[in-house]
Amino acid sequence: MQMKEQVWNESFHPGIISSTKLYFQDLFVGAKRMSRKDFWWGFLGMTIVAGIIMGILGFVITKMPITDFYWSSIVGVALAIAFGYYIISVFTAIIRRLHDRKMHGWWVLLPIIPFLGDIALLVLLCLPQKDFGNSWPKNIGEFYNQVSHFRKMTK
């Protein structure tokens, strides 16, 4: 009988709510890993949240009078901030997902290659994790321990 390897997930029960919380929690963190389930559930949840917020702001900005430049510019800036927040969260999540595949985050630039780059990145994001010999930590605490240990060794 062959034993199946345990798949690591940062949230104990990956789902739309717990995985979306990881997107919000690790918005600016790229130096860790994200499992496949957490990535795709979080992507769905983050897309829904961002779509609702941007939809409401877009609806508000179209219903404002043309002469009201002040409030329409404030709503426009809020819309740009919401979109930027979404893009940054997905970008860093892709980097964490690539780290779970034992790859460098620079692979996130693969879509620079027209058409084929997008398909190749999508395939990489769908592949299972590589846990054996993966130097990327599973949580941020492990990363800081590794860095402090390395600094002590180099002194």
Automatic annotation (TrEMBL):
<feature type="transmembrane region" description="Helical">
    <location>
        <begin position="39"/>
        <end position="61"/>
    </location>
</feature>
<dbReference type="Pfam" id="PF05656">
    <property type="entry name" value="DUF805"/>
</dbReference>
<dbReference type="GO" id="GO:0005886">
    <property type="term" value="C:plasma membrane"/>
</dbReference>
<feature type="transmembrane region" description="Helical">
    <location>
        <begin position="73"/>
        <end position="94"/>
    </location>
</feature>
<feature type="transmembrane region" description="Helical">
    <location>
        <begin position="106"/>
        <end position="125"/>
    </location>
</feature>
<dbReference type="InterPro" id="IPR008523">
    <property type="entry name" value="DUF805"/>
</dbReference>
<keyword id="KW-0812">Transmembrane</keyword>
<keyword id="KW-1133">Transmembrane helix</keyword>
<keyword id="KW-0472">Membrane</keyword>
<protein>
    <recommendedName>
        <fullName>DUF805 domain-containing protein</fullName>
    </recommendedName>
</protein>
